[in-house]
């Protein structure tokens, strides 16, 4: 299958762009311990975006993997996970801030170290939101691909070290035209005091048309309704 587009996000890098409906987006960790934070918005109506609470509640899950979908706050299927070599991607820990980054890794200034300064997810996301006609008020919960974070009975989050090996992949399928905002910055609960520097490769490929018998559609009744909502809106547009 021939790639439509490929980009590698290196340490601290960010990217945003629209990926059309009916595409596969394959993410590959080019080292151990990768983390790629991602936000998702309807490309034509930014007020509709990935909704973490509805996504998890509807699918009775705490994390995302093959067969799961990312739902919007309008109850529509936005993205499906069609392949996953890991089995767990974090949905709850959020993104790094400037205060957290400076405290954990040490203060770094672009004026002193140039492109080696330690970027944070909040700043990366905000810059890309502004570039796409939004602002910091449009920040929402991200998905942290390649990270596994569990919770104990008291609600304390535990980062699983060594979870992501070199070459780990997860493949997404776009169910609507989607604005992707990506930030190759650390998971906020990663206890390491060394700023991670693991590149992640992003590839866009064509996808076969989705049918009502698709595994992501049939994963649960809530998924089927979300797909039907998406298909209905696409038919009317």
Descriptive report:
- With 237 residues, the chain is of the alpha+beta class.
- It has one domain (5-236).
- 22% of the residues lie in helices and 29% in strands.
- It contains six helices and 13 strands.
- It has helices at 52-59, 98-105, 110-113, 121-131, 215-218, 221-236; strands at residues 5-9, 14-19, 23-29, 36-42, 45-49, 69-71, 77-84, 143-145, 149-151, 157-159, 169-174, 178-183, 200-206.
- The chain has a six-stranded antiparallel beta sheet. Strands 2, 4, 5, 8 and 12 form a five-stranded antiparallel beta sheet that branches.
- β6 (69-71) and β7 (77-84) form a beta hairpin.
- The longest helix is centred in the last third of the chain and has 16 residues, at 221-236.
Give the helix/strand layout:
Elements: E1 5-9, E2 14-19, E3 23-29, E4 36-42, E5 45-49, H1 52-59, E6 69-71, E7 77-84, H2 98-105, H3 110-113, H4 121-131, E8 143-145, E9 149-151, E10 157-159, E11 169-174, E12 178-183, E13 200-206, H5 215-218, H6 221-236
Antiparallel strand pairs: 1-13, 2-12, 3-11, 3-13, 4-5, 4-8, 4-12, 6-7, 7-11, 9-10
Provide keyphrases for this structure.
237 residues, alpha+beta, six-stranded antiparallel β-sheet, 13 strands, DUF1989 domain-containing protein, UAAP1
TL;DR of this structure?
With 237 residues, the protein is α+β, with helices and mostly antiparallel strands. It has one domain (5-236).
């Amino acid at each position: 299958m021939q790639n439509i587009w490929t980009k590698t996000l290196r340490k601290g890098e960010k990217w945003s762009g629209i990926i059309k409906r009916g595409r596969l987006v394959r993410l590959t960790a080019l080292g151990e311990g990768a983390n790629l934070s991602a936000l998702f918005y309807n490309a034509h109506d930014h007020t509709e975006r990935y909704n973490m609470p509805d996504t998890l509640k509807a699918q009775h899950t705490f994390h995302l993997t093959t067969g799961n979908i990312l739902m919007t706050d309008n109850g529509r299927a936005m993205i499906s996970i069609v392949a996953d070599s890991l089995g767990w991607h974090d949905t709850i820990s959020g993104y790094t801030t400037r205060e957290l980054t400076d405290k954990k890794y040490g203060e770094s200034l672009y004026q002193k170290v140039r492109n080696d300064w330690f970027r944070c997810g909040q700043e990366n996301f905000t810059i890309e939101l502004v570039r796409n006609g939004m602002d910091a008020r449009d920040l929402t919960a991200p998905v942290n691909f390649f990270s596994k974070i569990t919770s104990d009975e008291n609600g304390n989050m535990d980062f699983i070290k060594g979870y992501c090996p070199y070459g780990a992949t997860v493949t997404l399928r776009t169910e609507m035209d989607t604005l992707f905002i990506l930030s190759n910055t650390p998971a906020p609960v990663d206890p390491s005091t060394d700023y991670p520097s693991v590149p992640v490769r992003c590839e866009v490929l064509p996808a076969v048309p989705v049918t009502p018998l698709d595994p992501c559609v049939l994963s649960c009744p809530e998924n089927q309704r979300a797909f039907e909502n998406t298909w209905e809106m696409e038919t009317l547009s």
